[in-house]
């Protein structure tokens, strides 16, 4: 436990370091954007003096480091600044609602794809080289290879256009919350599920195969234990380890996927917000969204690593030294 | 190579995969000359024509543009960018990963830290933000930026395979012979690591297609009038209820190509791992 704590602190430290560097990189990246922020706020017809005055007032003429310092110190106390495109609306008032929507979407997808892909991965692994395995494996390969919007488009054609079970676009009517419109989450969540299913079930399958061929499983089988007991009590415990890593590693894809899926369905989440921010060249909003995605992504990677070493006694007792 | 074809004969799935890839290559090279419509021609009398009608084999979109010719033209750009990206990111990955792994020490630590930082942003988000900020993507900018997003992955793979080879005896033999570092890295070690690197590169090719298609879909890929498969999907999504073909065919084009390359890459890895 002490080693785990030590590892946790070390990881936390490197996480913070990464985030500091990353925030600077994000800031620089958006700074190189062609075009003048002040000009954008005032529009093309603004006089040169007005633009110059606004640049001065917003501190755009200050040295780079000073501006970074101002931005990052705001971020640390939770002030993300104001949106430029939606004239002076504070980002905090737009961002968090959308983040909430995205989290609901991601969690729904997560709840569907994790058990589903583990179950089918185990099934394929246990029935290695039989027709069941071939079907599951090919389906996994096919769905994994499809970008989210391709599987999404197929889902829309089937379930929204033909069967009319779900709406084509995921819009929340004004004045209602997402909880009254949960049917808009289903198709986006399913598109994410399809992509994730391939990765995770394939991983689960191959680790299941290698575990099922190990000596201790053979011993358990020879002892006369029921097969179901051997699979779920003995094999699954060890076969889950690589799967957990792969789930964690794919969190990055999940966030990239969110942007795509939300754009496809017009789902009002963080991904489509970032897309709008890029299209409208809304500098502070881009910075806020990218920073937030980075934070969520890095934290989930860290949690995966810690969970992995907690679940794997070989690493737990040796303090992370393989 | 002989072994490759021997294995290929036994694997019908891999044959189908290669056939689809060859089909798209031919379409990209010779396709445009075989179709009676051009990709920008707007047939204003025949908007949203169903597949097969009025000579439009795959129908038309809301502007009356022929879907088939747009898909065929689109295959050129996506194949070019994806091929360049996978080559570029693999080569840069080898250079970075090899030098970090070979020299070790501080260089290696700096390398790992740097890659950690690059990996802190999901690749799609990274390239989409940079491309969106720069605006006006071209084949060159698309290739460079997607490659940058991929380099952490390719460099880590290269570093990994180098580390397993580094302790081999032939490496110390070369060192004692007094060969210089570059010679050892690229003449002695590189040929022995080609297997995993080729596997990684073919997988990277499939990722590149997905990535380029997704970027096009998000509207930060190649700009009109160049037809782009991903962009065709989002452009025509508003008319999906009236003209599903305008969305489905480009989507299927992406699907077939990516699945074919994945099957191929799976097959390559099976063959190369068996060979050892």
TrEMBL record, chain A:
Cross-referenced InterPro entries: BPD_transp_1_N, MetI-like, MetI-like_sf
Keywords attached to this entry: Cell membrane, Membrane, Transmembrane, Transmembrane helix, Transport
Entry's transmembrane regions: 12-30, 103-126, 138-161, 181-200, 241-265, 285-308
Gene Ontology cellular-component terms listed: plasma membrane
GO terms of molecular function: dipeptide transmembrane transporter activity
Residue intervals of the ABC transmembrane type-1 domain: 99-304
Pfam families: BPD_transp_1, BPD_transp_1_N
Keyword Transport: yes
Membrane topology value: Multi-pass membrane protein
PROSITE patterns (alphabetical): ABC_TM1 (PS50928)
Family according to the record: Belongs to the binding-protein-dependent transport system permease family.
Identification of the protein by name: ABC transporter permease
């Amino acid at each position: 436990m002490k080693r785990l704590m030590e590892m946790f602190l070390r990881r936390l430290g490197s996480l913070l370091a990464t985030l500091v560097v990353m925030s600077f990189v994000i800031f620089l990246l958006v700074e190189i954007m062609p075009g003048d922020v002040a000009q954008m706020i005032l529009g093309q017809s603004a006089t040169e003096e007005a633009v110059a005055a606004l640049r001065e007032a917003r501190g755009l003429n200050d040295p780079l480091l000073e501006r970074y310092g101002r931005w990052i110190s705001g971020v640390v106390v939770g002030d993300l600044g104001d949106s430029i495109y939606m004239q002076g609306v504070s980002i905090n008032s737009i961002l968090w609602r959308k983040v909430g929507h995205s989290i609901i979407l991601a969690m729904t997808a997560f709840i569907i794809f994790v058990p589903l892909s583990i179950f089918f991965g185990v099934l394929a692994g246990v029935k290695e080289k039989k027709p069941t395995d071939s079907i599951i494996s090919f389906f996994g390969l096919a769905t994994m290879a499809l970008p989210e919007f391709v599987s999404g488009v197929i889902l829309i054609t089937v379930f929204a256009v033909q069967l009319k079970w779900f709406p084509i676009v995921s819009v929340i009517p004004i004045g209602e919350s997402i909880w009254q419109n949960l049917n808009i989450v289903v198709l986006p969540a399913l598109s994410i599920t399809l992509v994730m299913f391939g990765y995770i079930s394939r991983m689960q399958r191959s680790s299941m195969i290698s575990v099922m061929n190990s000596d201790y499983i053979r011993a358990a089988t020879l002892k006369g234990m029921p097969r179901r007991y051997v699979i779920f009590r003995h094999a699954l415990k060890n076969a889950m380890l690589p799967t957990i890593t792969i789930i964690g590693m794919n969190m990055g894809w999940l966030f990239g996927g969110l942007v795509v899926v939300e754009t496809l369905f017009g789902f009002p989440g963080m991904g489509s917000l970032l897309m709008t921010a890029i299209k409208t060249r809304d500098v502070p909003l881009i910075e806020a969204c990218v920073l937030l995605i980075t934070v969520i992504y890095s934290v989930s990677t860290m949690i995966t690593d810690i969970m992995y070493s907690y679940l794997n006694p070989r690493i737990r007792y040796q303090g992370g030294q393989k | 190579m002989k072994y490759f074809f021997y294995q290929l004969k036994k694997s019908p799935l891999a044959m189908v995969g290669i056939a689809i890839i060859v089909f798209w290559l031919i379409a990209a090279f010779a396709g445009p000359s075989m179709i009676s419509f051009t990709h920008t021609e707007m047939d204003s009398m025949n908007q949203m024509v169903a597949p097969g009608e009025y000579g439009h084999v795959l129908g038309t979109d809301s502007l009356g543009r022929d879907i088939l010719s747009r898909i065929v033209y689109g295959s050129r750009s996506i194949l070019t960018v994806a091929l360049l990206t996978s080559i570029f990111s693999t080569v840069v990955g080898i250079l970075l990963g090899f030098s970090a792994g070979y020299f070790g020490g501080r260089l290696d630590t700096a390398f790992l830290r740097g890659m950690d930082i690059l990996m802190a942003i999901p690749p799609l988000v990274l390239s989409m933000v940079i491309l969106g900020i720069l605006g006006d993507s071209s084949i060159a900018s698309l290739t460079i930026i997607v490659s940058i997003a991929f380099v952490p992955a390719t460099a880590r793979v290269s570093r990994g395979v180098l580390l397993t080879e580094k302790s081999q005896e032939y490496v110390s033999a070369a060192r004692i012979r007094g060969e210089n570092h570059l010679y050892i890295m690229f003449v002695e070690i590189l040929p022995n690591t080609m297997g995993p690197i080729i596997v990684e590169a073919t997988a990277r090719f499939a990722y590149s297609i997905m990535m380029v298609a997704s970027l096009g879909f998000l509207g930060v890929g190649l700009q009109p009038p160049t037809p782009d498969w991903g962009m065709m999907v989002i452009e025509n999504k508003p008319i999906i209820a009236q003209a599903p073909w305008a969305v489905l065919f480009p989507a299927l084009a992406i699907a077939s190509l990516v699945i074919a390359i994945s099957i191929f890459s799976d097959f390559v890895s099976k063959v190369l791992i068996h060979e050892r």
